[in-house]
Design a protein that fits this description.
By secondary structure, the protein is of the alpha/beta class. About 35% of the residues lie in helices and about 20% in strands. It comes from Plectosphaerella cucumerina.
């Protein structure tokens, strides 16, 4: 009896093949992004110094970055609520055309504690802007207007 039931159910268990007629979709406009756009995670102290020094081509664990004169560093912690809150905005800024000549990088202060101590990170998030290899500005806390103002200031220099 169970064999009869299983044979009768078997056709129902086979995936149904759906045939959909081809449709024409309008072409979508897209914007290509360069490899350097986006936020890059720095995993080591050496990666940080390579990016800040503006070496010709920086080979990080993720990909290769071309040299830039302005670097914005986000010092964050995974357990930090304000860090999590501002992270999407930081990514959005990194993809904006106005800031295409700025490197956006971040470090997890718990993963690179020696660098965090060397930079004097006492609160998270801390944003540091480096211009031509030198620390030019520091913004402590998740303060989008202050960060945007600093980004605009340094984007105008490029």
């Amino acid at each position: 009896m169970s064999a009869t039931i299983s044979r009768s159910i078997r056709p129902l268990l086979r995936p149904a093949v759906r045939i959909t007629p081809p449709t024409t979709t309008p072409s979508r406009f897209f914007r290509s992004t360069s490899v350097t756009m986006g936020v890059h995670n720095l995993k080591t102290k050496q990666d940080f110094y390579k990016v800040i020094a503006g070496e010709e081509q920086v080979q990080l664990s993720e990909n290769t970055l071309s040299p830039k004169k302005v670097v914005v560093l986000d010092c964050f912690a995974t357990w930090c609520g304000p860090c999590k809150a501002i992270a999407p905005q930081f990514v959005k800024w990194s993809d904006e055309e106005a800031y295409k000549d700025i490197h956006f990088v971040k470090i997890d202060v718990d993963e690179v504690p020696d660098l965090s101590q060397e930079l004097g990170i006492r609160a998270m998030p801390t944003f540091m802007i480096f211009h031509n290899g030198d620390k030019a500005e520091e913004i402590v806390g998740a303060n989008p207007p202050a960060i945007k103002k600093a980004l605009d200031k340094y984007a105008a220099l490029l």
